[in-house]
């Protein structure tokens, strides 16, 4: 079940954010000054093959997989820093179900908003 990390560091000049954590998924939500959702990122399949679906009011959707940097390191060097790389694969049915299962303790308006966006992205990609 997603639970909120209460003391999330806020960065000056950036929208206020809230972070919700679970061992399978993370959800970060950014809010505008009127406390409306400005953007969110849901990271899923964390233990193994992590991916991220990001939505923002300005840019829409982006889907990435996390390159953990293991393959980037050369012999004798430390691994590279993890980065997001574009990835078109998105099993929206599975992620929508996972999110619904994990979001029972989230504020209802956040859970509904994110769930609706996951489904709308899935429908958009199915066309």
Describe it for me?
With 127 residues, the chain is α+β, with helices and mostly antiparallel strands. The protein has one domain. Helix content is 24%, strand content 32%. It has two helices and seven strands. It has a seven-stranded antiparallel sheet with strand order 1-2-3-4-5-6-7, covered by helices on one side. The longest helix is centred in the C-terminal third of the chain and has 19 residues, at 108-126.
Quick synopsis:
With 127 residues, the chain is an alpha+beta fold. Helices cover 24% and strands 32% of the residues. A hairpin with a 3-residue loop joins β5 and β6.
**Structurally, how many domains make up the residues?**
1
What is the terminal-to-terminal distance? 32 Å
Strand order of the largest sheet: 1-2-3-4-5-6-7
- In terms of DSSP E residues, the strand content is 25-35%
Shape: globular
Provide the gyration radius in Å.
15 Å
Topology as a string of helices (H) and strands (E): EEEEEEEHH
SS-based structural class?
alpha+beta
Arithmetic mean of pLDDT: 87
| Tally of DSSP helical segments | 2
Report the strand count: 7
Helix amount, in percent?
Answer: 10-25%
Largest sheet: 7 strands, antiparallel
Low-confidence stretches: none
Which labels suit this protein?
7 strands, 127 residues, 32% strand, alpha+beta, globular
Topology of helices and strands:
Layout (H helix, E strand, L loop, with lengths): L2 E3 L10 E6 L4 E6 L5 E8 L6 E6 L3 E8 L15 E4 L5 H11 L5 H19 L1
Antiparallel strand pairs: 1-2, 2-3, 3-4, 4-5, 5-6, 6-7
């Amino acid at each position: 079940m997603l639970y909120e990390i209460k003391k999330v560091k806020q960065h000056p000049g950036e929208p206020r954010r809230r972070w919700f954590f679970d061992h399978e998924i993370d959800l970060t939500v950014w809010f505008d000054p009127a406390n409306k959702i400005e953007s969110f990122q849901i990271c899923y399949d964390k233990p193994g093959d992590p991916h991220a679906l990001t939505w923002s009011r300005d840019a829409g959707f982006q889907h990435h997989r996390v390159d953990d940097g293991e393959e980037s390191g050369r012999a004798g060097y430390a691994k590279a820093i993890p980065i997001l790389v574009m990835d078109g694969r998105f099993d929206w049915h599975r992620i929508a179900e996972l999110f619904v299962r994990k979001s029972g303790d989230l504020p209802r308006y956040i859970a509904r908003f994110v769930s609706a966006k996951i489904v709308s992205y899935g429908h958009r990609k199915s066309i």
